[in-house]
Write a structure and sequence with these properties.
The complex is a heterodimer. Chain A is of the alpha/beta class. Chain A is built from 22 helices and 23 strands. In chain A, the strands form 2 sheets. Chain A has a 21-stranded mixed beta sheet, covered by helices on one side. Chain A has a two-stranded parallel ribbon with strand order 5-7. In chain B, strands 1, 2, 3, 4, 5 and 6 form a 6-stranded mixed beta sheet that branches. By secondary structure, chain B is of the alpha/beta class. The chains are: A alpha/beta, B alpha/beta. Chain B: Its main location: nucleus.
Chain lengths: ~575, ~160
């Protein structure tokens, strides 16, 4: 744009134009055009996403963006889901809430993932934001039903309360009853993580009956089966629903009541829950199956024949989560019935058993890759795999964007040839040019990393475990993967050399996690000195790394870029290069 | 890398430590290998937190950590079931005693003796194994039963 024209457009016009630009990436580009665009843009940015809550401080965000309405924050690294991050590591949201309470009175959306949220934080949210609408706490912890009661009591315009996969302490408060009788605005409620004591069924029924805009309801498993029908009759407009426990033996009156209730729900598109479902009850949902786009059966211990029958009723499925009880036969049926399938996740029913308890092999995945032309996202746990199958999958489905394979026994080789999986995963990264997420497993040498570095140019997140022979593996990834943002590694022989050689790369990424690898504390200190805008955290509960022998390798290492400098809430088992103990304050 | 692949993947997982710590000191190791049970060999490294699954999915399925193993128990005719911690029991006799107390009946299992004239006072104890089959309780060694059992059912004779 010619300079004359750029300066002649008024601020109001530019602001109006910018309001059509929603994506963060585009907004960031816009703000880099010139100083005046930076100024205009920062005053009208309404939505902020902070992928690592320690990458920036709340004060810095508030200083740059004074009028934010919606914020999303992520705390602990992904491997915290698998208990690799010790309790007390960090991710506390209180300071953010405190700062925003003063600066953003009109904040109406808070979305948090893997953060520690206290009742105090929830009470502060309830008190500070008059028009609060959306609260999503995904995989969070540290709060109880007391905090939920505060939210329920004060947030008159709350539309969304989603506690997915969070850990909530039961304070015995009937928090649902704290929604006043005048409250009618709920659109989306997800309380599937709550225990049995934490939901008063009658309060829930009253809430559902007075919220006509309720579209998504995910209940916890303690709600009994006969009550499900009541809820559905109160909310036939539901689009998403999570059922409760089915484990009683079939009773025909309960069944027909349930089937009747489901048949009223013409808008239902997504079903989940199904804990302990008794297969005899499944036909109760057949009336909605033809419209279902999303089905989560990952808690349902039903066997392949019942799953095949169910799948045959669901031709519109786009997202399916299921246990390996579905077996290859179930996936073959899926491949022929569900041509719109975009996402498949198959979980192991018996993850800790050496022997397979279900006949699920690589064949199931190959069938789906062949039969489902829109398949983009795969998460697959299995016990055997071959390079040939991976090559076939890659050739069938070059449109894959997310491919996460977990061969359950670490370092398992190709069961046909005994070879490592370099060729197979190499084919995946070569053919799937838009691949943004990849998880590796099985027997892997440095060879696979060479392929990844060479081909995976759009890859943003890579997960590696029990793989590689030497630092060269890590070096290939860090030097080759141009779009890499998150790298998480465990139990690999990667050490100092690759890290120090590629130190600059680390500042272009959000974070790097390495646990049970071969990195020395010396290298960590060196890296930290070289790269002042990286926080290099050594997580080691065994004691001060400085006091350990020369050849000691750190237990866990978390490196992330930050403009906020070292954090002030590090627990005693996190070691950095700074000897300044004043930095160690309790949260 | 030198480790045998058969029956070794579950060595390090927490819920199998409970089975092996009492069993392996008394039993023949080759029997364990043949039966496919997990045994406790000191590994060169402990493979914790594998496979990478979120706690909710893994634990819901097993409800089994190193100190408890709860299974559901249903009695025929009663829709509401009970839950029982199998690891709180040392043997079949222990388990039968608890069940007889919990359900106020006499339990028939592989080693029970029954008064055939009064069969209506007895219930048969069966369990669902990993293949989905219902088997009479008591035919296999206790530890093997623990690794196979999914749930229990008490049926009328």
């Amino acid at each position: 744009m010619p300079r004359r024209l750029a300066s002649s457009l008024s601020d109001e016009v530019l602001e109006h134009v910018f309001s059509f630009i929603q994506s963060d990436k585009d907004r960031n580009v816009v703000s880099a055009v010139c100083k005046s665009w930076y100024e205009i843009e920062r005053w009208c940015r309404r939505k902020i996403f902070v992928g690592n809550c320690y990458a920036v401080s709340p004060k810095m965000v508030i200083r740059r963006f004074p009028q934010v309405r919606s914020i999303e924050l992520k705390g602990k690294p992904h491997f915290a889901d698998f208990n690799l991050v010790p309790d007390g590591w960090g991710g506390y949201v209180l300071q953010w809430i405190t700062e925003m309470a003063g600066a953003y009175p009109w904040l109406d959306e808070i979305r948090l993932k893997r953060m520690v949220v206290t009742d105090e934080s929830l009470e502060l949210i309830a008190k500070s934001f008059k028009d609060f609408k959306v609260l999503v706490l995904a995989s969070c912890e540290g709060f109880s039903t007391d905090g939920l009661a505060a939210i329920a009591a004060s947030c008159k315009n709350l539309r969304e309360l989603d506690l997915r996969e969070s850990e909530v302490d039961d304070s015995s408060v009937h928090w649902l009853s704290h929604f006043p009788e005048t409250y009618t605005s709920m659109v989306s409620l997800n309380i599937s993580c709550l225990g049995s004591g934490e939901v008063s069924f009658s309060a829930l029924e009253r809430l559902v009956s007075r919220c006509p805009n309720l579209r998504s309801l995910k209940l916890n498993r303690a709600v009994p089966l006969d009550k499900t029908a009541n809820i559905l009759r109160l909310a036939p407009q539901l689009v998403e629903f999570s059922t409760c426990t089915y484990s009683a033996e079939l009773r025909s009156d309960v069944f027909s009541n349930l089937a009747g209730a489901f048949s009223n729900c013409k808008e239902l598109r997504s079903l989940s829950g199904f804990w302990d479902v008794v297969p005899d009850y499944l036909p109760a949902i057949y009336s909605v199956c033809s419209r279902l786009t999303s089905l989560n059966l990952s808690y349902a211990t039903i066997q392949s024949p019942d799953l095949i029958k169910l799948a045959s009723h669901c031709p519109s499925l786009q997202h399916l989560l299921v246990l390996d009880y579905t077996e290859d036969s179930g996936l073959e049926a899926l491949a022929s019935n569900s041509k719109d399938l975009q996402e498949l996740r198959v979980f192991p029913s018996d993850p800790f058993d050496a022997e397979p308890n279900a006949s699920l092999t690589e064949q199931g995945l190959v069938a789906v890759s062949l039969g489902c032309p829109k398949l983009q996202s795969v998460l697959y746990f299995c016990r055997r795999m071959s390079n040939a199958a991976l090559v076939t999958i890659a050739q069938n489905r070059p449109n894959l964007t997310r491919f996460r394979l977990c061969i359950i026994e670490p370092k398992t080789a190709d069961y046909l040839t005994g070879e490592p999986f370099g060729v197979g995963f190499g084919a995946i990264v070569e053919h799937c040019k838009d691949l943004i997420r990849l998880s590796l497993s099985g027997l892997l040498t440095d060879c696979v990393f060479e392929y990844i570095g060479k081909y995976a140019k759009k890859l943003e997140m890579l997960s590696v475990a029990f793989a590689g022979d030497s630092d060269l593996g890590l070096h290939h990834v860090l030097s080759g993967c141009e779009s890499l943002r998150k790298l998480e590694i465990r139990d690999c022989p990667f050490g100092d050399k690759a890290l120090l050689t590629n130190a600059a790369k680390l500042e272009t990424m959000r974070s790097l996690w390495m646990s049970s690898c071969s990195v020395s504390f010396e290298a960590c200190k060196l890296l930290s000195q070289k790269m002042p805008r990286l926080n290099v955290e050594v997580i080691d509960e065994r004691g001060p790394p400085d006091s350990r022998p020369e050849n000691y390798t750190v237990d866990k290492l978390y490196i992330y870029r930050s403009v906020a400098g070292p954090r002030f809430d590090m627990p005693p088992f996190v070691w950095t290069k700074d000897e300044d103990l004043a930095l160690r304050l309790s949260p | 890398m030198g480790r045998p692949t058969s029956s070794s993947s579950s060595i390090d997982s927490p819920n199998h430590f409970a089975f092996s710590s009492t069993a392996s000191s008394q039993r023949d190791l080759t029997t364990d290998l043949r039966l496919g049970l997990s045994i406790s060999i000191a590994p060169p490294f402990v493979r914790e937190q594998w496979p990478p699954m979120k706690a909710a999915v893994a634990e819901e399925e097993h409800e089994c950590n190193s100190s408890t193993f709860y299974v559901k128990v249903y009695m025929e005719g009663i829709p509401i079931g009970r839950k029982l911690d199998l690891l709180a029991h040392e043997s079949y006799y222990d388990l039968i005693r608890t069940l007889e107390h919990m359900f106020h009946t006499n339990i028939i299992w592989a080693e029970a003796e029954m008064d055939r004239d009064h069969y209506e006072k007895y219930h048969v104890l069966t369990y669902e194994d990993k293949e989905g089959d219902w088997m009479m309780v008591g035919d296999v060694p206790w530890e093997m039963f623990l690794s196979a059992v999914r749930r229990l059912k008490i049926s009328k004779c």
